[in-house]
Amino acid sequence: MSDVEDRSAILARLEGTLGYVFRDRGLLEAALRHSSYAHERAVEAGDEVDPESESNERLEFLGDAVLALVVAEALYAAKPDWQEGELTRALHSIVEGSSLAALAARLDVGSTMRLGRTEESSRGAEKPKVLEDAMEAVVGAMYLDGGIDVVRRFVGEHFADALAADAVRVERDPKTELQERLMREVGEFPSYRLVGDTEVEGDEQRFSVEVVSQGDVLGAGTARTKRAAEKTAARAALGGLPEDGEGTPGG
């Protein structure tokens, strides 16, 4: 079997797990092309035009938006008694990074990806962020190839449990919960301060953040983005606070 035939078989296997056969398989191939691979191809091509030197990042952007729309639509129809806050928290829970990474792992998306040599040697196909981005890119590719109904069917099949009646009554966003809690108990919002930045793009522990109230550090967190680090810090702070009515922070 030639390399071309082997790659075709790999993509066909993924189409089987996705439950969708692409009319333009080039879109699926593009969705599986990590930026590290695209960069290596661009360097090797030099001034030549190489279609494989474009990463999956644009499709990731599109897929993120399409997935949010379709899941929001499904929640709106399935939960007529839920208010905006409940719908928003459910949406975030369903389309958050860990959920998408887990879905990509179940569908074995990682084994089909094109990765740069360094990323491949560091087992990039198993990294949650790589899988999350690839899953969003695949959804974007499905949308471009087959339209919104294809994505609706995909969501209906692979997010059915998450969309079930009692499955998505999820915890509130920790930053919002902490903010409301501290405003109620001490009369001010918490602040977040950046205490570390490795400045390494893609580092899962790049940013270190502390959340502070009335001069006291209530919690700390590290993550790939500042926003995620702040959420981790807020969650840690909530875990260290007394139950409502049992006292105030630092009191």
As a percent range, the share of helical residues equals 55-70%
Integer count of domains: 2
Structural class: mainly alpha
CATH class term of the largest domain = Mainly Alpha
Write down the secondary-structure element order. Answer: HHHHHHHHHHEEEH
Oligomer: single chain
Please describe the biggest sheet, giving its number of strands, its sense, and whether it closes into a barrel.
3 strands, antiparallel
The fourth-level CATH homologous superfamily of the largest domain is Ribonuclease III domain
**Radius of gyration of CA atoms, rounded to a whole number:** 21 Å
- How many separate helices? 11
What is the strand content?
Answer: 5-15%
Explain what the structure shows.
The chain folds into two domains: 3-158, Ribonuclease III domain (Ribonuclease iii, N-terminal Endonuclease Domain, Chain A, Orthogonal Bundle), CATH 1.10.1520; 174-240, Double Stranded RNA Binding Domain, CATH 3.30.160.20. It has eleven helices and three strands; from the N terminus they run ααααααααααβββα. The chain has helices spanning 3-18, 25-31, 35-45, 57-78, 84-95, 97-106, 117-121, 128-146, 148-158, 174-186, 226-240, and strands at residues 191-197, 207-213, 216-223. It has a three-stranded antiparallel beta sheet with strand order 1-2-3, covered by helices on one side. Helix 4 packs across helix 9 (148-158) and helix 10 packs across helix 11. The N and C termini lie far apart (71 Å).
